[in-house]
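User: Structure please.
Assistant: Input sequence and predicted structure:
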Amino acid sequence: MTPTRAAREGAEPKLREKAYQSFTERLLAREIKPGQFVSQRELVEITGLPLGAIRELVPRLEAEGLIRTVPQRGMQVAHVDVDLIRNAFQFRLFLEKEATALFAAAASDALIASMRDAHEGIVARARAGGDPDLVPDAEEVDRVMHQTIVDHLDNDIISKAFRVNWIKIKLIRRDETRLYQGMILPVMGDHLRVIDALEARDPAAAVEAIAAHITNARNRALDL
């Protein structure tokens, strides 16, 4: 039975989204490396998705700055350099300072309390030691806090831009920007200072705390 036109059109966006997810997952897993040149055929092999989906994926990746077309050489995955580090973290500062100020004024007590519980849980596990799942769980708590604050703006354009920038942050020599055992307590401490200000409903203090946290992360990326 031949699929109807409506069924085909409904499937195409799902396939494009699947292609995007597959590409970004492999990028973050370093199966695709920053600065690497790739062809559409190679992306088909890497992602396991059809050529048509890859062709539709490329304009989105170019628009988001995750790849660029180099004349006579093909497509190059985003190259990590000092400019990328500075630009990505500057974007975070501009966006998250405003989002945090609004979050401090409007977020529910229950949502803020859930953030504190998640962070205090990570702190307790870090102090206890010997937890093999601590680092990935801490990274997830880190991501969820920032994403929750941004998503609370209820602005799809901003949320999507934040997620693309988050991918770029993770590309910055991932082994040096990811959390590791020695960084968990300092990072959670930064976050808890933000949460203190959120609980006090003090937007100015919350903005100061989130800015200090993002600046600390940027400086670690630049130093390393």
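The beta strands are 37-38, 67-70, 74-77.
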